[in-house]
Amino acid sequence: MKKYAEALQAINQAIQILPEYHKFYLKRGDIYLELKEYDLALSDYNKYLTHKPDSSSALYNRGLAFLKLKRYPDSIKDFSRAIEVKPKYYKVYIKRAKACSILGETQKRNQNLLKAFKLKLAGYM
User: Fold this and answer.
1) How far is CA 107 from the centre of its chain?
2) pTM for the full model?
3) Among 12, 60, 64, 91, whose Cα sits 20 to 30 Å from the Cα of 79?
4) Handedness of CA 6, 9, 15, 18 (dihedral sign)
5) Which pLDDT band holds residue 48 (cuts at 50, 70, 90)?
């Protein structure tokens, strides 16, 4: 945790110096996600996605934050958008399957798990 607190302090200073450098918001969102500060992570991912709406990593991580906040439809929406951008990113299918499972969407869960399994076997990350 200390490592993340130090990283957060450094990135906050960097944002003060260069607030227009959007990648800082992505990185700070990642730190907030690790610190389980999901609302703060969402805020930073939203800022980043305003400038980079096709960022599969930002969509995936915002989906994770939504998942942790039990905002399952929002997480599915972000995971689906991340898949549109990067269709062979198997981890997104796994997380979307989890959200579908929680919502009782068994068939969608199974479809996502099968797709993730096929991609993993094919060597995709």
Assistant:
1) 23
2) 0.92
3) 12
4) negative
5) very high
Given a contact cutoff of 8 angstroms between Cβ atoms, the answer to whether 8 and 28 are in contact is: yes
How large a percentage of the chain has pLDDT more than 90?
94
As to burial, measured by CB atoms within 10 angstroms (0-12 exposed, 13-18 middle, 19+ buried), residue 19 is exposed
Classify residue 55 by its DSSP letter: -
* 95: its two tokens: 């997380």
Tell me, what amino acid is at 110?
N
- CATH architecture for residues 1-53: Alpha Horseshoe (1.25)
- Got the DSSP string for 11-32? HHHHHHH-TT-THHHHHHHHHH
Greatest Cα-to-Cα distance within the chain, rounded to the nearest angstrom: 49
